[in-house]
Design brief:
single chain; alpha+beta; TATA-Binding Protein; six-stranded antiparallel β-sheet; 2 helices; 6 strands; 30% helix
Length: 100
Amino acid sequence: MSTTQAHITVTELGPSKLLNRLATHWAHKLEVEQSPERARIVFPGDAVCVLQAADAQTLHARIDAPDAGVLDRLEEVVASHLLRMSRGEALEISWSRASA
């Protein structure tokens, strides 16, 4: 299992609103567990993304995937969707990897 994490600063919109937008968007086609401060999204192929509002400006994202190839793809998918859901807010998304 491969893991990647990102700590994303969200100043204008707020992390809770951003994660809820994204979770609602993906709930139409993926399995999603959602609360105001946390979302867990299950992707095909045994990959999971967890988004957690850490404080008023920080969103933590973690992706667990079965291999590095799936992880590569999901980093791009999650980042592009976060940027789209932020509606123009400049987000800094930097993934750091660890192998489990």
